[in-house]
Write a structure and sequence with these properties.
Order of helices and strands: HHHHHHHHHEEH
Structural class: mainly alpha
Largest sheet: 2 strands, antiparallel
Radius of gyration: 21 Å
Distance between the termini: 33 Å
Oligomer: single chain
Length: about 220
Amino acid sequence: MTRLHDLNFFVKLAAAFALMTVAWLAPDWRFGFPFAALILLMLWATRVPKLGGYLKGAGLLTLMVIVSWMVNLLLQGVSAPDALAHAAKMAARLVATTALFYFVMETSPPGAILAACSAARLPAVVTLVLSLLFGIIPMLRDEFERIADAQRARGMEIDDVSLVRRLRFALARGVPLLVQAIRTAHAISFSLSLYGFELSRKRTTWREVGLMVEPRMTWKDMTR
């Protein structure tokens, strides 16, 4: 797992896009579902953190996609077997896609993303967008879990309930999560202004970034 954290962020991102393309080019669900299962097995084998929470979300996503697509296709006059096959294919694609980018997010610390972007001499805006995109989603997920813990502490039963009630309670977390997201965005913008972030200013990096990210400076580098 440590070596996965050290692997260049863009190498992992390119691999995720390549595997995602394979998933979306799958001809039907008979190929898509085994491929999505293989991706999930890869996450388990590499011991990606908090995989249990992701699997719960992936299961809910699969159910919602299949139901929504089947209803839509049935209303259009598609036969039930064809509607189910198409809905299963879309669910497999989305599970594979979300699993791949979950892997990238959980194995790419913000510092590694910033170092890779800086070493690649990407524009400041691109660096900022990538670091925030892959850094703030895990933060919001953790905040979502803290809100759930607060609900449990106040006596709200959100575990051993029906799926409909669980969805209602999940939606009830949306308002405090939105408030926290706005506060986080404000804190980030305030920190950037304090540290003198400017779009026109080019910056350098002290980290050596090749295929792997070198997280430490050597004594030779420090004595230059």
